[in-house]
Amino acid sequence: MELIGQGGLWRIYKIKNQNSVFRIPIGSSKTLIDNFIKNLGIPTLKKVKEFEIEGHTGILCDNVNCSDEIVYVTYNSLYSDSQKLLHSLDKHILVNKEERVSSLAEDFRYKNKIEELTNFEDFINNVKSDLKLATKQGILIEFDSYFFGTQKKSTITNIGYKIVDLDHIFINTSKQEAELFTLNLAEFLRAINGFLQYFVAEKNRSKYLEYLDE
To answer: Cα separation of 64 and 166, whole Å?
Structure first.
């Protein structure tokens, strides 16, 4: 197994010769493995199952970054150059604290920032339609769940998404539909704003942010 990323809840390993990753929890984190998101028709993982490898119990799931064409990223997993520098400067005061490990996908997109998102308005409208479906089923999808996919070999690209991190999805919220949709939309906007901030070139970022503000 090859360690390809580590955040606050999971270590992510690439499985050799497979289009899968193995997620080992840090502490007591657990992944919801129900198929309700998939059944709604919202883009998500095709495979999620409990598994054991080399004595470690975790979750075996799709490697969304096994393609040479599309790279999926979330700003929540980015360990940027500036963060690394701060971590290095503060290392002497960090005691018994695990270091984060760069995610290869986020590192790549951070260093090869997007110049243009060719389908941005259609993308936003499609996600809003998906969120209406989720809301009608009483589902709340928090910002951590969103991974945004763009073409790997071009900085002029369309954008898509998948619900990848299933730890931050809640069902049976008992909220009224209007309130729940507002929450779902706010969480998505938090996710896409973070994506724009870290992965889109600064000179072109404002037009997308302005569109979201409308």
So the answer is: 14
For residue 143, give both structure tokens. Answer: 């910002």
Whether 154 and 70 have beta carbons less than 8 Å apart is answered as no
Q: pLDDT digits over 117-147, tens only?
A: 999 999 999 999 999 999 998 999 999 889 9
Spell 74-106 as b/e; 16+ CB within 10 A means b: bbbbbbeeeeeeeeeeeeeeeeeeeebebbbbb
d(CA 117, CA 124): 11
Sign of CA dihedral 81, 31, 147, 14: positive
Element spanning 12, H or E: strand 10-14
Report in angstroms the alpha-carbon separations of 204 from 117, 156, 191.
10, 11, 18
pTM of the predicted model as reported, rounded to 2 decimal places: 0.80
Q: Are 64 and 104 in contact (CB under 8 A)?
A: no
